[in-house]
Every structure is written in structure tokens, then in C-alpha cells.
Design goal:
Helices cover 55% and strands 7% of the residues. It has 148 residues and is mainly alpha-helical. It has one domain. Helix 4 links the parallel strand 1 and strand 2. It is globular. InterPro entries: LDcluster4 (IPR041164). It holds the Pfam family LDcluster4.
């Protein structure tokens, strides 16, 4: 499922021109690698992975979490402490599922999104496209980015 989400996120980034902040490993660099390999955009010649969890999260407005382990938890904790909007795919397991379960108990963790959007994240068990559609809608609702 994560591979399918990476492909869908890559299409979203390419079609909307979103900026991706990422470390040397993880979903962010996978999205950028997929874009480089599949789309070969002439204006992208280099992707630099930022070292240090704080550097990855600090400039982001939205933090998208798929799966993850201890390093991902560090980024989630930093994102939360910095007031970032965290979007998780619970079906991907790991820290994403754990954060979603915590947010069920403490709704302040995702109070920036509607209850409907929050619940729909859990319903994306088999559909990367549905998850990315929700991501795009959340970005649109809170950032004003175009959404068709």
C-alpha cells in the first residue's frame, strides 16, 4: 500500500507543484525519487535529504505519515510540538496507526480537521487514491491550494 501512496503523492506533487521536505530516508525521498524516475522534470536536478528530524519537520506546514518506527515518532512529536498539521494513513501501520489511535482518544491531536476527514483517513484501507484525495482536500481547506 505504501508504494501505491508514494505514486499517488508523486502525481499530486507534480500536478500541484507542492514543495516536499524530506530526510535522506522515508516517504518524502521516495516521492521525490519516483518523480525523478517517472516524470523526469527538467527543473528538478537535485534532491537533498535533510539530516535531523527537526530540519525535516520545521519548514513543513503538513506532515504526512505512512507507517514508521522510532524516527517517525520523533518527527510526529516534533510536528505536534511545532503546531504542524499531521495527516496519517492508519492502514499503513507503525507510528501512523499509533498516532491515529491516540487521536481517537485525544481529539486535540487532529482538531484542525473535520471529524469526517479524520474518520475517512481510517477508511482508506485499500485505496491510495482515496487517501491522497483526502490529503489534497485537507491542504486545499487549510492552505487555499487549488483542488478540482
Amino acid at each position: 500500500m505504501i508504494d501505491a501512496v508514494v505514486r499517488c503523492l508523486a502525481r499530486l506533487v507534480m500536478s500541484r507543484g507542492y514543495k516536499v521536505s524530506h530526510g535522506p530516508v522515508g516517504v518524502g525521498i521516495e516521492v521525490m525519487t519516483y518523480i525523478a524516475d517517472q516524470y523526469r522534470p527538467p527543473d528538478i536536478t537535485l534532491a537533498i535529504g535533510l539530516f535531523g528530524h527537526r530540519h525535516v519537520v520545521q519548514g513543513a506546514e503538513f506532515v504526512i505519515v505512512l507507517g514508521g518506527a522510532a524516527g517517525t515518532q520523533t518527527e510526529i512529536d516534533l510536528a505536534h510540538s511545532l503546531g504542524k498539521k499531521i495527516i496519517v494513513l492508519p492502514a499503513s501501520g507503525g507510528r501512523a496507526r499509533r498516532f491515529y489511535q491516540q487521536a481517537i482518544r485525544d481529539q486535540r491531536l487532529c482538531s484542525w480537521m473535520t471529524h469526517e476527514h479524520f474518520a475517512s483517513l481510517n477508511a482508506c484501507e485499500d485505496s491510495a487514491e482515496d487517501f491522497v484525495r483526502i490529503v489534497e482536500q485537507l491542504i486545499h481547506d487549510h492552505h487555499g491550494a487549488p483542488c478540482d
